[in-house]
Amino acid sequence: MDPFFQALMELILFFIIFPVTFKAMMSFDLAKHFQKGAIWQIQIITIFLSLALSYLVTRTFAWLIELSTGLIN
Fold first, then answer.
1. Distances (CA, A) of 35 to 6, 38, 39, 40, 60
2. Which stretches of 1-73 are DSSP H helices?
3. Dist. CA 62–CA 20, nearest whole Å
4. How buried is residue 54: exposed, middle or buried, by Cβ count under 10 Å (0-12/13-18/19+)?
5. Whole-prediction pTM
6. What region does 2 belong to: left with phi over 0, alpha with psi -120 to 50, or beta?
7. Taking phi first (over 0 means left), then psi (-120 to 50 degrees means alpha), and beta for anything else, what does residue 29 get?
8. Which of 14, 21, 16 lies closest to 62 in space, CA to CA?
9. Whether 71 contacts 6, CB under 8 Å
10. How does pLDDT run across 19-60, given as a tens digit for each residue?
11. Among 14, 24, 22, 19, which Cα is nearest to 60's?
């Protein structure tokens, strides 16, 4: 697979998966693990966890696509 196309596909996939993981992270109640009034810390942790989870899911999908195209060719 062309490296440019693969990078473009991963970027598009990341921006599709990120809102889904962000919405999923919003369903967790992280406030019980922080002090009262630590709103910006909770928001930062939610964003970083969403970014990390999005990256892992994107890399997994990209690896599966690369593996399947490698088996076909």
1. 43, 6, 9, 11, 35
2. 3-26, 39-72
3. 17
4. buried
5. 0.83
6. beta
7. beta
8. 14
9. no
10. 999 999 999 888 888 888 889 999 999 999 999 999 999 999
11. 14
